[in-house]
Each structure stands twice: as C-alpha cells, then as structure tokens.
Amino acid sequence: MPPPLTGIRVLDLTTVVAGPTATMILADLGAHVIKIERIDGGDDARHMGPHLGHWGAFFVPINRGKRSIAADIGKPAGRDLVLRLARESDVFIENFRGGKMAALGLDEPAVRAVNPRIVYASLSAYGTRGPDCLKPGYDALVQARTGIVSVTGTGPESPIRAGVSLIDMGAGMWMAMGILAALLERQKSGIAQRVDASLFQTGVMAMVYHLVYRQFSGVNPVPQGSRHTAFAPYCAFETADGRMMVGVSNERMFRRLCTALDRPEWLSDPRFATNPLRVQHCRELEAELQKIFKDHPAAHWTALFDEHDVPVSPVQNAEQVLNDPQLAALGQLGTMTLADQHAEVAVPRLPFELSITPAELASAPPMHGEHGRAILTEAGYSDGEIEQLVASGVCKLP
After folding, report:
1. Over the stretch 292-320, which tens digit does the pLDDT of each residue have?
2. Beta strands 395-396 and 32-37, pairing class
3. Angle 222-226-229 (CA atoms, 0-180°, nearest 5)?
C-alpha cells in the first residue's frame, strides 16, 4: 500500500532546519512537497558544511523527497506563482519572521482566498503574540532562553548547549504533528485551520520536568553533567578503555547492581539505602563505583550488567553509531545517491514504524531549482510564460 500521505500536496517556503524537518517528515510519509527556494543561493542550509561537492551536511538529510523551484517571491509575478501553486495544495508552510508574509501578500488571508481548504502552517522563533513575537531566534538562543543551557554541562561557570539541534528538530516534529492533526480534522469536518508552532514553546516543553522540579523543590535545577537529578547512580563512568553510561532508576535495579558487583553491603549502607539517599550522596557512590569500573574495559561491564539486567550503554561516537548492530537490525539507516556526486550517504529513517503503510525514504534531496520547469508546467504555465519568468528574474532554472 502507498504511504499514508500519498495525494497530499505541501507548499514549502521554509529554510534551514526546523521547517524543513517538518516537511521532511511529511515527505517520508508520502506527501508531494514542493520546496520554493530563493534564486540567490537557495536554502541557507545548502551552505552549512561540511560539504561533499556542493551538498551541505545540514541540507541533505532533511530535504530528501522534495522537489525544488527557485523563485523570487518578493516580485509580484513570484507572489502570483506561489498563490497559483497554493490553489492545488493541501498545506502551506512558512517560517519567516512575523509580518513578512503579510508584506509579501502571502499571509493566511491571502492564501486562503485562493484555497479555503488549505492548512496554513507558520513556524516562528517566539510564537505569534507577546513582546518578543517579532524577534529572530535560533536553536542555541532558544536553548538559553528556555533554560536548557542552565541545566546542561557540568556547572554554571561554563554554559553548554545541547550538541544536537534539539530545538529546531523538536519544533519541526511538533509542527508536523500539528499539520497531521489539522489534516485529520479537515477530513472529518471539512474545516481547514491554521497551525502555529515555535522554537520557544518547543524549548519550554523540553524543560517540563525541570519546571515542575523548581515548583516542587523551591530551588532551580543546576547542571548535572551526565547525572540525573532524580536517580543515582545515573551517570557516565570511565572504564579501562572508554566511557559507559549506567542508569539505575529504582530499588530493584540497585539491588541487581549490588549483586553484579558483589557489593551486598551497599544495600544496608545508610548513605545508599534508598534512591533519595543515593541522590544526596551520589558523589560518594560514584567514587566507589569508579574504583571498580577502571579495572576492566567497557565490554566486560556491559556483558556483566546485561547478565544481571542493569541498564548500561557504552558512550559511542558517530562512527560507532553508524555501525551499531542494533541500528542495522532495525533498518533505520537508508541510503541516498547524491546527484552530481554519484556518492551514497546514509541517513536515518523516521524513528517510528507503520505496519501497513510504512514511511519511505523517497528520494535524494533536490538540486537548487532542479524541478522548476516541471513544476511550472504542471501549474499551467506555457513555455513562453516560463521563459518570461526566467527573463524577468522571477525564476531561475538549472
């Protein structure tokens, strides 16, 4: 059976990471995504390295399965092109700063005037209202604003952001979920609605445990390194050949850890008898564990803890993750061949599985403006009109 969004058409005016992540999810689920890019250079993510030829590492994985047209939407003919494509689309998604779409004549009323059934989706930095709704925002800035930086790292003297695009990709996932909900509602009631998501709201949601922690404890949570504020032992340890992460989250697991390490006395130690006490005395417990773990390689401890059902994992780098046998068993990595390079790149598939209509890694990402002529022809432009759009600088064809 075809993927679940087969027949859904998405008009994508987003750039960089957050918006393209949302439309990548929709594309993998079968939607026909038309990506409208700037004439001069296209999506900024194309220029974010490292590069393989002209392909940027940020652009490739989150723009797969899309078709690209290069157009100047600031010109009247470019705006008309967008509205013409919107007439036959189910979803319109943009991530411009507040007010920009109205200035371009492409805000929700303008788009809905040509297609009342369209789902209009807007992804912003700080939301659609409030004192900061017009401010620009980026992943690291929003990690700072929402408190994520305050609980990341080893101490307040060295603020550290999460090493992945946590906010951008999270906002893209929330946006995709909102669009799917809106499409379902349209199917049920015939009513099309607007979907808004923001980086700021995504960061606040990611902080949910820490926000409740502050209210319950009366103090602000602080950076814990690899520790957890609620469990112990729960952190990374050095072994004879690298680091491993141990995560003990209840009394049963702690008893199994003591059995595995032949330390029954820890169960009656007043410092370690309960999880709250272990959290209070976590550094003392970690020091005892570290003395033990340094004598053998990580594989030894992983095998031992697996035998005793104690949660453990080696701390892996990117190369090790790419070669992880569990990843291979799940088939989560798919390969794409990049145009012009004849090189294959492995990228993760969507991290969920549908038993009957699975998501597909549809195609490699598009070259800048690669499908422009085909998209214009499908929209009803004649050859002469297409040449006029190119001559006037409204469109650029490869």
Report:
1. 999 999 999 999 999 999 999 999 999 99
2. unpaired
3. 45
For residue range 101-130, list pLDDT tens digits in order: 999 999 999 999 999 999 999 999 999 999
Strands lying side by side in the sheet with 9-13: 194-198, 119-124, 91-94, 9-13, 32-37, 66-71, 395-396
Residue 198: its H or E element: strand 194-198
Token pair for 185: 């509602």
Q: Are 52 and 345 in contact (CB under 8 A)?
A: yes
298-307 helix and 251-261 helix, angle to the nearest 10 degrees: 120
Is 90 exceeded by the pLDDT of residue 280? yes
- What is the percent of the chain where pLDDT is above 90? 94
Helix ranges, the chain (H): 18-28, 59-62, 76-86, 100-104, 108-114, 139-145, 166-189, 199-206, 208-217, 251-261, 275-280, 282-293, 298-307, 318-322, 325-330, 372-378, 383-391
pLDDT band of residue 156 (cuts 50, 70, 90) is confident
Least confident segment among 37-41, 84-88, 270-274, 358-362: 358-362
Burial state string for 149-182 with b = 16 or more CB within 10 A and e = fewer than 16: bbbbbeeeeeeebeeebbbbbbbbbbbbebbbeb
Q: Which pLDDT does position 155 carry in this prediction?
A: 81
CB within 8 A of 141, min separation 6: which ones? none
Among residues 107, 168, 196, 306, the one annotated as catalytic is 168
383 has catalytic annotation = no
With beta carbons less than 8 A apart as the criterion, state whether 334 and 28 touch.
Answer: no
Q: What pTM value is reported for the model?
A: 0.94
